[in-house]
Structures
1.
Amino acid sequence: MGRGKIEIKRIENSSNRQVTYSKRRNGIIKKAKEITVLCDAKVSLVVFASSGKMHEYCSPSTKLVDILESYHKQSGNRLWDAKHENLSNEIDGIKKENDSMQIELRHLKGEDISSLNHKELQVIEDVLEKGQANIRDKQDEIVTMLRKNVSTASRDGHGKWVSAAHNEATGLQT
Amino acid sequence: MGRGKIEIKRIENSSNRQVTYSKRRNGIIKKAKEITVLCDAKVSLVVFASSGKMHEYCSPSTKLVDILESYHKQSGNRLWDAKHENLSNEIDGIKKENDSMQIELRHLKGEDISSLNHKELQVIEDVLEKGQANIRDKQDEIVTMLRKNVSTASRDGHGKWVSAAHNEATGLQT
DNA sequence: TTGTCTATGTATAACGT
DNA sequence: TACGTTATACATAGACA
């Protein structure tokens, strides 16, 4: 189909190969369009040059995704579904975790506790008490630090306290 | 390219359409094979007849999945990633939520509080106190209910307490 | 490169069967 | 309906700009 017949084997001359590639690629895409119109077919065509450059054709009014989905259905092939499923599972897992944390948080705040029994309430109370103890210890530490701080603290020329530690501990800055 | 020129528009005669479809489909697949060999290209071709029947061609030594993955990478096109991205975003969102709940929970339990300042600790303490108050109210309610219950309770023939309310409240059953 | 031009090879529309 | 056949339209290899 040209000035001379050619064998169907790799074209060694790279610039010829490139030329032939782009001509034939256009040809195939044209044919794909035609069969789409003529025969009411759906076509998905993806071509990669050896250079890695890509071209595609996909019948109008049909997203490639849809075609691939049909492909997927028909072929029974998993394709991307594996990935899809992984993500879904991950979501489910995290959501579960999320829900239970949500519930635990609410309970600690004393919300949504009307259905809890004495034992369950006791567990929560214990946790709260433990938490409170820890928090208070920490507060005591801070107070101690402040006192130590105050005893060595000084004011600047404008009468402001000069102590990064003091500010940090009280949350006045940073 | 036949006995007569044809317009590129849907062939209305359905048997002609079917014939043309299968001829042209073979033609395209042949071309696809040729460009694959001649130009060292990779081709993925999926064709659906309007009947729903599918045919595919894929360059040898290349799985369709791989081609699609390359396609996906190169095209910057979302494709199935649209779905994936949605899922990923969802995951990110939930994870964020998760993390902050995680932190809040730890704080309420008095963990990981070494970097907190006085103000922040105070907030936590307030929440704990509020929660404790709620829990204690509920406990009181239960005690009241139990008392009321006990006064009207009875034992069964084997000496066991017969009171769904009592069991539920104390968590001995269910 | 990137395109345009033909001579030629191919694909195929319309027929037969 | 599903195949071969064949006249024709189309695609394209090589040449040249």
2.
Amino acid sequence: MRVRFAPSPTGHLHVGNARTALFNWLLARGSGGTFILRIEDTDRERSTSASEQAILEDLEWLGLGWDEGPFRQSERLDIYRAQADRLLAEGRAYYCFCTEAQLKAEREAALAAGEAPKYSGRCRDLSRSEVAARRSRGEPAVVRFRVPEGGDVAFLDKVRGEVSFPRAAIGDFVLLRPDGNPAYNFAVVVDDALMRVTQVVRGEDHISNTPRQVLLYEALGFRPPEFAHVALVLGPDHTPLSKRHGATSVAEFRARGYLPEALVNYLALIGWSPGGDQEVLPIEELARRFRLEDVGRSAGVFDEEKLAWVNRHYMRLAGAPRLAKLAAPFLRAEGMVVREPDASGWAYLEKVVGMASDSVDRLADIPRRLRFLFSYDAARALSDPEVQAVLNEDGAREVVAGLARELAASERLTSREAFRAAADRVKRETGRKAKALFHPIRVALTGEAGGPELDHAVPAIDLGAQLPAGSGLSPVVGCRERVQLFLEALDRA
RNA sequence: GCCGGUAUCGUCUAGGGGUCAGGACACGUGGUUCUCAGCCACGGGACCGGGGUUCGAAUCCCCGUACCGGUACCA
């Protein structure tokens, strides 16, 4: 089996296209086949090498490596020319000198008359000598395919079944533009045939091109591949997913802190089901189970909530070192990491990122969850209504005062046990327990009413306070200092 | 307009001539934990509409409706 993904480099990799790439990849991987990457850059106006580069990076980030390519259509111009010459020589194609203005007027007239706008065929039967004369005069000409008349063009689609189009609806279409660049339908067929692609899996938006392509396969004497057209991905309002809906490109989801394996897993779930009751599955398992005939025919709505849920799974599955590495750029953007951390910095990050990650959806949420470590501000804490509510509870201030006395006398709370022991002593001294004990401790030490478990958060604070100056992280104020600052702020208030 | 396509909970789906129409996300309630997340239990929620075929239709057929794609010298 030989499959391909053939994006045009006109922007970022859209998640809909990423899903198409994934389906192809799964097919190849699941069958021991070959996954070919081809860049369809025949539209010289819109194609950019920056886009191409971005698409390659996105595919690599997703883990969708290719076996052959990337091939660029812009580098295969003579191949298309040669194939077009064959069709020209056989009379299956012809030169057309119609101007764009002419064609546009005809199209509009047809539309107004309620007819299908298709090429009129004006240049279809120009005499040999006229063609030669006009060409030698340098008159711009395209090469058009002479669509055989009559009947239907049918093909078997692996996801849609039998599909057929009346041939009469297909006008003679352009193969080669005046500048020698091939048009889409022509380049695709030539490439897919020459690259010996066996299954063409692509978006549904290409389905009505398929009859044209089938005709071309016939005319060129190539055997058509199997086709499969997968439905598009929509936004929550059932319109095609666009910028309006927020993130649409792989790069944007990466920037929001989704893990590649989560995006891949989620994308596979739109329009396909792995069967069984398990849907969070590694890509290799998806490849084992994936079958084109199980792909649904209807369009699917992209649901970021579910993506987030899948992402949580994969964040839990990721080991601490990897998670720390992944989260570091996000922490750096918030000033929590100030330069490349040293070994102590990384060790610390592994600890705290692990603590933060089991209650957030995405990497981008981690800094907020760790803010209490790097920017303790007692005054800000007191202005928080939730913190106020905690302090207004019976005995809350006594707990804070007791905690301050306890910490003044004890070592740093660098372990869960040390923290528990300290909390126990405050408990005995104040007679407060559970919520009445831990809530005031939390607000005093973290400055926030919520956050990671105190068993983890408190040692993280004091461990952070011991970090050497060269760790690469923003400084962390220790517990003892915090509770003093908190008390002072309380006095002032 | 014309040509194609699609239709099961809000969303992704399983199933498919006789089922209590199953699961997941989301949502609601209760429990658990210092908070959030999580976890546990419980709960609400769907076969687009109308005809036909049939003993029986959500499932097959037709019509309609809605939505999507195409209708290029864009892919």
